[in-house]
């Protein structure tokens, strides 16, 4: 079968012939891949910033944002059948029996760091015609979401961030009363940093949770991302025309910041403008080799007197995939003509290397497998 692989030695990305996998254990499922999204992680792997092939393989099959169709199931699989659409998880638990996180199916919090990840770390990914996977890592998606379910995995990043924020804010019981249980963001403002797929999907999630949502991103409006932000009822603010001081005047109180922009200096400066009891969530991380010349005392000055929390979050656990699929359904109903616009272009497998090695404009690029 055909697959798209990166060769770490040469940084080459090419279509390879790879043995078609077969079901070997009763709990396994064979999948035919439909589409796989491309993101910054894939591009970092191709540039050899990180990622590693499985042991004894010269290459790593790429792809972790997948949508697939079940073609066959092992004897022990009861919740899936051929024809079902599924979204697979990315991270797989480590083998260390003392890792309580992995033992509890929270491998996104793995304590040993010896987890594996499909298409990233020591396991082949989903840019292949067929894959065999354990049923417990597969999440059924309704057929109505066929055109957008490839966005599930990037949405899980926002789902986990929101879940972490809501768990932290249980410290404020007056805000998590029955009145706000369906819209926990009511009366609060959220600022999303960045208008890439993870930022825009996060903005959609914050809007449906009742947050007064702002997206702060580089490009001046009008542009296609700003149009999406406005259409979902959020406010787009360009950092080119609105410096951070003016942003804080416009938003008034920044209760939650969801960082998804890979621009640490700006993000860190915004920490200084966080509201009382506010939360700042990093999802993209910072580059340790790039000094920012930031006044760390000023950055952390308000943390204690204003009860603020700064957290980092990576990857997503099983429950987060379930809620992401559910919320994509909500987005689809609420914004049927907007949600599909997050997918800029679909590319055949033969053209995948162009999308992986360059960064084309637009929002989400997807490789069509079948
Ligand atoms: Zn990704
Ligand atoms: Zn672990």
Automatic annotation (TrEMBL):
Alcohol dehydrogenase-like N-terminal domain residues: 26-143
Single GO MF annotation: oxidoreductase activity
Signal peptide: none
Keywords: Metal-binding, Oxidoreductase, Zinc
TM ranges: none
InterPro entries noted in UniProt: ADH-like_N (IPR013154), Glu_dehyd_C (IPR031640), GroES-like_sf (IPR011032), NAD(P)-bd_dom_sf (IPR036291)
All copies of domain Glucose dehydrogenase C-terminal, residue ranges: 147-368
Cofactor(s), names only, from the UniProt record: Zn(2+)
Keyword NADP assigned: no
Pfam families: ADH_N (PF08240), Glu_dehyd_C (PF16912)
Domain of life where this protein originates: Bacteria
Protein name listed in UniProt: Alcohol dehydrogenase
Taxonomic source organism: Dictyobacter aurantiacus
């Amino acid at each position: 079968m055909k697959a798209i692989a990166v060769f770490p030695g040469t940084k080459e990305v090419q279509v390879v012939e790879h043995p078609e996998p077969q079901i070997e254990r009763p709990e396994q499922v064979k999948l035919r891949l439909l589409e796989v999204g491309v993101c910054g992680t894939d591009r970092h792997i191709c540039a050899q910033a990180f990622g590693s092939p499985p042991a004894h393989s010269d290459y790593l099959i790429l792809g972790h944002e997948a949508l697939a169709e079940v073609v066959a199931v092992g004897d022990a699989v009861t919740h899936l059948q051929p024809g079902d659409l599924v979204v697979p998880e990315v991270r797989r638990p480590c083998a260390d029996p003392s890792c309580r996180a992995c033992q509890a199916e929270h491998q996104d919090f793995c304590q040993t760091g010896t987890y594996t990840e499909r298409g990233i770390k020591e396991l082949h990914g989903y840019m292949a015609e067929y894959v065999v996977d354990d049923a417990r890592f597969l999440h059924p998606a309704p057929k109505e979401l066929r055109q957008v379910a490839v966005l599930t995995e990037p949405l899980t990043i926002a789902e986990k961030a929101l879940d972490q924020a809501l768990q932290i804010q249980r410290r404020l019981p007056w805000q998590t009363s029955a009145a706000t249980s369906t819209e926990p963001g009511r009366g609060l403002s959220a600022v999303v940093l960045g208008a890439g797929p993870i930022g825009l999907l996060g903005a959609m999630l914050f809007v449906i949770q009742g947050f007064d949502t702002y997206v702060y991103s580089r490009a001046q409006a009008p542009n296609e991302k700003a149009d999406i932000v406005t259409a979902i009822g959020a406010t787009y603010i360009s950092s080119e025309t609105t410096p951070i001081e003016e942003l804080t005047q416009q938003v008034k109180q920044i209760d939650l910041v969801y960082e998804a922009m890979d621009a640490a200096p700006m993000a860190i400066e915004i920490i200084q403008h966080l509201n009382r009891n506010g939360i700042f969530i990093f999802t993209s991380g910072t580059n340790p080799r790039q000094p920012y010349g930031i006044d760390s005392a000023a950055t952390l000055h308000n943390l204690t007197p204003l009860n603020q929390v700064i957290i980092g979050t990576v990857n997503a656990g099983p429950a987060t995939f379930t809620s992401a699929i559910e919320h994509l359904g909500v987005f689809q109903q609420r914004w049927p003509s907007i949600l599909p616009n997050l997918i800029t272009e679909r590319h055949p497998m033969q053209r995948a290397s162009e999308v992986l090695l360059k960064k084309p404009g637009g929002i989400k690029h997807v490789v069509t497998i079948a």
